[in-house]
């Protein structure tokens, strides 16, 4: 996939790009609401920015947001004024459908929402946009009704989080989990899979847009364990294993990110194939960092092959990663020849590590259940 996401001022974006044609048609303007073109020009005059994916054909995806505290007027009721993050515009070009850009953008919006501290986030869309509605529903948005412009209002609230599925409660972690664990990933693969988890000084969240959003939030880990050590819904820390030759492994190897396990299966155990390669490939689809030939090689050579699907929930960021030296010093690493993936962290230990990584635990770990 060519191109990349960048933040651009509205004034720098080509409104004549065919990408915007459907938005112009869907939002011509009414007595109570400005049209898309007028709205766009107003944002340009204010110097506002949007997140844009561009390639050789032009704009491939577009995402704009704003913080507000206003009533939401529906046809049958009014939602009272509340601090909310509104997803103002969200669109992915048809040529990039099924390539997980939309998943990454929704994830970015939800990360942004958590950082604002706003109780709610919402987006409006027309009922004909079934695929878009389905994507938002996957991430826990609930249809609250229709507004006077004929749009469906899709909303999520921090006060009532749906813990029935890891995607629906993303990026929150369910507080009453049994235990947490570690996933070990070599540095060369880690830096592609978890592009936000920079190891050195970096730019702010929304200024460092790259492969992580472009490639979605669902990641595939290919391991060599003879048994499955993870369960769906389990939170895990991502450990970046330093493989360089500059020494200082205990300081260069570190925890950078945290995920929730969304799927586990084994393709091979003790040299015995448990599924055909085509089945394995179809399960992994485009979520792995490995090319097909690399994946086939591992499938043929590995004695055991365990697959763990992960939902990338968050990261510590520049200068906040938790190194191996600290983990060992605080009794949070291996004992008695135990392999790191066999470690079972308690809820308290999980929180201690999050705090060490400068994560506000109350913003992420929620001891609440229920459906909006």
Index terms:
globular, seven-stranded mixed sheet, about 25% helix, Aminopeptidase, 2 domains, alpha+beta, about 375 residues
Detailed description of the structure:
With 372 residues, the chain is α+β, with helices and mostly antiparallel strands. It has two domains: 4-159, Gcn5-related N-acetyltransferase (GNAT) (Aminopeptidase, 3-Layer(aba) Sandwich); 175-366, no CATH class. It has 13 helices and 16 strands. The protein has helices spanning 21-26, 36-46, 101-116, 130-138, 166-169, 187-193, 211-214, 249-252, 277-284, 292-301, 324-329, 347-356, 361-364, and strands at 4-9, 49-55, 58-73, 78-92, 120-125, 142-146, 152-157, 173-174, 181-186, 218-223, 235-241, 254-269, 272-273, 305-315, 322-323, 365-366. The strands form three sheets. It has a seven-stranded mixed beta sheet with strand order 1-2-3-4-5-7-6. Strands 9, 10, 11, 12, 13, 14 and 15 form a seven-stranded mixed beta sheet that branches. The two termini are 37 Å apart.
């Amino acid at each position: 996939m060519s191109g990349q996401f960048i933040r651009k001022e509205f004034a720098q974006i080509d409104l004549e790009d065919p990408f915007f044609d459907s938005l112009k048609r869907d939002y011509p303007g009414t007595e109570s609401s400005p049209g898309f073109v007028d709205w766009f020009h107003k944002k340009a005059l204010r110097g506002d920015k949007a997140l844009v994916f561009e390639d050789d054909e032009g704009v491939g995806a577009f995402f704009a947001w704003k913080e507000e505290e206003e009533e939401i007027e529906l046809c049958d009721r009014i939602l009272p004024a509340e601090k909310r993050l509104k997803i103002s515009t969200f669109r992915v070009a048809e040529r990039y459908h099924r390539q997980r850009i939309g998943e990454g953008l929704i994830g970015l919006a939800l990360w942004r929402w958590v950082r604002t501290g706003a109780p709610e986030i919402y987006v409006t869309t027309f009922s004909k946009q079934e695929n878009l509605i389905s994507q938002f529903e996957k991430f826990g948005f609930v249809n609250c009704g229709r507004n006077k412009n004929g749009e469906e209002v899709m909303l999520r609230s921090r006060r009532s989080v749906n813990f029935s599925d890891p995607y629906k409660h993303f990026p929150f972690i369910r507080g009453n989990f049994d235990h947490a664990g570690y996933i070990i990933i070599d540095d060369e693969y880690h830096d592609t899979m978890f592009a936000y988890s920079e190891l050195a000084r970096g730019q702010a969240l929304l200024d460092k847009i790259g492969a992580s959003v472009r490639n979605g939030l669902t990641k595939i880990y290919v391991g060599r364990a003879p048994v499955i050590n993870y369960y769906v819904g389990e939170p895990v820390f991502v450990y970046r294993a330093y493989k360089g030759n500059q020494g200082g492994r205990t300081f260069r190897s570190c925890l950078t990110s945290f995920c929730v396990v969304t799927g586990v299966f084994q393709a091979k155990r003790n040299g015995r194939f448990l599924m055909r390669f085509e089945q394995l490939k179809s399960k992994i689809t485009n979520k792995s960092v490995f090319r097909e030939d690399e994946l086939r090689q591992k499938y043929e050579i590995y004695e055991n092959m365990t697959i763990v699907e992960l939902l990338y929930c968050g990261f510590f960021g520049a200068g906040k990663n938790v190194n191996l030296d600290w983990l060992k010093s605080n009794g949070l690493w291996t004992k008695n020849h135990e392999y790191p993936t066999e470690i079972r962290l308690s809820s308290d230990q999980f929180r201690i590590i999050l705090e060490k990584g400068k994560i506000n635990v109350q913003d992420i770990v929620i001891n609440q259940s229920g459906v909006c």
